[in-house]
Amino acid sequence: MASLYDHVVSLGRGCQPAHQIRRIRGIELAHVFDWIVTTDRGLVAHITSNLDGFFGRGTLVHGPEDCVIDRATGTKFIHEFPKGSDLDAKHAEHAERFAHLVARWRAMLASQRRVLFVRQHGWDEDRRGSAVRLRDAIAQQAPELRFAILYLTAYSDDDPSWGEAQIINRCLIQPDPYDWKGDDAAWQRLLDEAGSRATSISGIVESSDAR
């Protein structure tokens, strides 16, 4: 996939964006939000705090359906804590890995790299507002970063652009019957388009012809 961006990074809401970015881009580099489940407002809270206390043992509790969640944001850690597992033991097993991912996130946000973030909308009724809050949270934490957000919803009326700077909003078709991995063709099209299209993002090359 030709791209104007140095990195394409999943912001969840779950595993589907990370899976498709890896499949299409052929990369294995992990990022902190790849394989966890985040609410729209919870994600913004994590970013606004610069991941302060992220995956701290004191923030983790058993939530609905025996999932381990972050108490403040509702973020679910499904893969790290299989049902019936010992919370303390599993936290100790994964704490160092998450510390590395947090450090990687902070280093990226402190850089001047060109990043395409990919967010599959969660459950907030205000889809556009959620996208704007996410953009503003990243911009506040990363004033030098050159970024855009490919913001994907389940609604066809979100295909026309909202006209929001640094946000590429599109409808993402899901397979029927549903598959957590998503529709490969739909993802290929959307990532190719977002990675090579002209943008209005300050500091990023305006056209793929000018790379």
Q: What does it look like?
A:
The protein has 211 residues and is α/β, with parallel strands linked by helices. Helices cover 33% and strands 15% of the residues. A 4-stranded parallel beta sheet has the order 1-5-6-7, with helices on both faces. A 3-stranded antiparallel beta sheet has the order 2-3-4, with no helix packed on it. Strand 5 (114-120), helix 4 (127-141) and strand 6 (146-153) form a beta-alpha-beta unit. Helix 2 (40-48) runs parallel beside helix 4. The model is unreliable at 205-211 (pLDDT under 50).
> Strand order of the main beta sheet, please?
1-5-6-7
The radius of gyration is 17 Å
Mean pLDDT over all positions: 92
Helicity, as a percent range: 25-40%
Overall geometry: globular
Amino- and carboxy-terminal Cα gap:
14 Å
Q: Please give the oligomerization state of what you see.
A: single chain
Structural class: alpha/beta
Helix segment tally: 5
Order of helices and strands: EHHEEEHEHEEH
What amount of the residues lies in strands? 15-25%
Are there runs of 5+ residues with pLDDT below 50, and where? 205-211
Largest sheet: 4 strands, parallel
SSE inventory with pairings:
Blueprint: E1 7-10, H1 16-25, H2 40-48, E2 60-62, E3 68-70, E4 76-77, H3 87-109, E5 114-120, H4 127-141, E6 146-153, E7 167-171, H5 184-196
Parallel strand pairs: 1-5, 5-6, 6-7
Antiparallel strand pairs: 2-3, 3-4
